[in-house]
Design goal:
The chain is an all-beta fold. The chain has two domains: 90 residues, no CATH class; 114 residues, AttH-like fold, CATH 2.40.370. Strands 1, 2, 3, 4, 5, 6, 7 and 8 form an eight-stranded antiparallel beta sheet that branches. The longest helix has 6 residues. It is globular and about 50 Å long. About 16% of the residues have low confidence.
């Protein structure tokens, strides 16, 4: 993997020529880069983790499936790039909604030439809409609110028991892992519904 040009914020180029794993992708960043935890670094499992994300990108290139080359259609492509270094702690919301709604959320049309802008995100988990695991007694929120400037995402779980229970000797905590419904609202726009997938764990 390498940068597309001398500006590392323009995008990434990745490729493989290994047998049965052939691809050549250019991933252009088309939204502001987000520094997770607002600072990019955070404490997890006794160590320091670093993570930054590009929630929307445009992909170009091609790949091979069963020996046949397939080209990516940039106008229909969607790419999320997430870079994690150090101790593992991954919290991710990947949302796919009706065509065009991500442009409103990510300000891509308004800020096409400002990739250095970083947006801290405020995430609030519901303390009343929770599911208690009968096996571990852990509480799992079923609703979250994510605020980013004048945009708000209401994230809800369609069923309560979307969890992965982990034994104490695994080294990983139990976590919520499942599908979610999302309603995106932004000043001046009609609310838009989408859906996605969430993995969320608590580190103590």
């Amino acid at each position: 993997m390498e940068t597309i040009d001398q500006n590392p914020l323009h995008g990434l180029h990745t490729y493989s020529s290994a047998e049965d794993v052939e691809f050549d992708f250019d991933l252009y960043f088309t939204s502001p880069i987000l520094l997770n935890a607002a600072l990019e670094s955070y404490q997890v499992a006794g160590g320091l983790g670093r993570e930054w994300s590009v929630p929307k990108g445009r992909a170009e290139g091609s790949f091979k499936v069963d020996g046949e080359k397939a080209d990516i259609v940039p106008k229909k492509s969607f790419a999320w790039y997430d870079r994690l270094v150090g101790y593992l702690a991954h919290v991710c919301l990947e949302v796919v909604g009706p065509r065009g709604w991500l442009e409103d959320v990510c300000y891509c049309q308004k800020l096409p030439q400002q990739p250095r802008l970083c947006g801290p995100i405020n995430l609030t988990a519901s303390t009343t809409k929770v599911w208690v695991s009968p096996d571990t007694g852990l509480e799992y929120p079923q609703e979250w609110t994510i605020r980013w400037e004048n945009t708000e995402l209401l994230v809800t779980s369609p069923r309560p028991d979307q969890v992965i229970e982990a034994d104490d000797d695994t080294g990983f905590p139990s976590r919520f892992s499942g599908y979610v419904n999302v309603v995106a609202t932004k000043a001046g726009y009609n609310p838009i519904r989408g859906f996605g997938a969430v993995d969320r764990m608590r580190i103590e």
